[in-house]
Write a structure and sequence with these properties.
The structure is a single chain. Helices cover about 40% and strands about 20% of the residues. The chain is α/β, with parallel strands linked by helices. It folds into two domains: about 120 residues, Oxidized Rhodanese, domain 1, CATH 3.40.250.10; about 100 residues, 3-Layer(aba) Sandwich (Glutaredoxin). The strands form two sheets. Strands 1-5-4-2-3 form a five-stranded parallel beta sheet, with helices on both faces. A four-stranded mixed beta sheet has the order 7-6-8-9, with helices on both faces. The termini are far apart.
Length: about 250
């Protein structure tokens, strides 16, 4: 049986797409994980401990996202630069509309050193078809611009400083923003709170040894006395501020 060239092209596309959605290949690092997962695994096992990455376009994400997802468009020119700011020590679940693009993104994440990478089979369509919830996109945080020289002087000349290293699109950073605002209101007279957008100024990330975000660091008289990576409880931040000022 002969196939019309157009029909053959369509069949090749469909088979390639099916393969991309159902086979991710091997992780390039020994001991690394690169797997497809079901909605059930994400909802019941990984939801509270993994980073969730939505790699769809802005037009798509405006229709809803999985709660807590960080949004980085796969088609952004700086996609690989942005993912370098994500915490590589945690599991990461990546999804798109139906699982095709996210399988590509999962392979990129594995190549970039993420050791536990999961692709959500069926994407957001499959998630919603099972009646699982989506939420509205939170607005990006405002970019707080400060130069390397300004930040260095601030740290050296202030009695005490709390630095919040973030990126406007980072979901954990957005979750921490109200906590940092509350701390600034309550303790702003005794410790200077400075928010630092390392996505806008990568040099600051290198200078202050920030490899993933969010990062919170307390400096006392020019010296770092405490640091925390990732989501941090307000009570811990308050306790560390009090310790630093003793």
């Amino acid at each position: 049986m002969l196939f019309h060239p157009l029909r053959l092209a369509i069949l090749l596309f469909v088979s390639t797409f099916f393969f991309a959605c159902n086979s991710l290949g091997q992780h390039p690092e020994e001991g690394g994980i690169l797997e497809n997962i079901s909605n059930e695994v994400l909802a019941k096992t990984l939801m509270d401990k993994a980073l969730i990455l939505d790699i769809r376009t802005p037009e798509e994400t405006q229709l809803g996202i999985i709660e807590g997802a960080t949004i980085i468009n796969l088609y952004d020119d700086d996609f690989e630069a942005k993912i370098q700011l994500l915490e590589k020590s945690k599991p990461i679940v990546v999804y798109c509309a139906s699982g095709g693009r996210s399988s590509q993104a999962a392979a990129i994440l594995a190549e970039q050193g993420f050791m536990e990478v999961y692709n959500l089979k069926g994407g957001l369509y499959g998630w919603q078809n099972e009646g699982l919830p989506v939420t509205k996109v939170l607005n990006d945080l405002e970019s707080a611009m400060i130069t390397k020289e300004e930040l260095t002087i601030l740290v050296q000349e202030s009695n005490a400083v709390l630095l919040d290293f973030y990126a406007p699109w980072c979901a954990p950073c957005k979750a921490m923003a109200p906590i940092i605002e509350d701390i600034e209101k309550a303790y702003g007279e005794i410790i200077h709170v400075e928010r630092v957008d390392v996505a806008a100024n990568p040099e600051l990330g290198k200078t202050f040894n920030v490899s993933s975000i969010p990062v919170f660091a307390i400096y006392r008289k020019g010296k770092e006395v405490w640091r925390s990576n990732g989501l941090t409880e307000k009570s811990i931040l308050v306790d560390e501020i009090k310790k630093a000022l003793e």
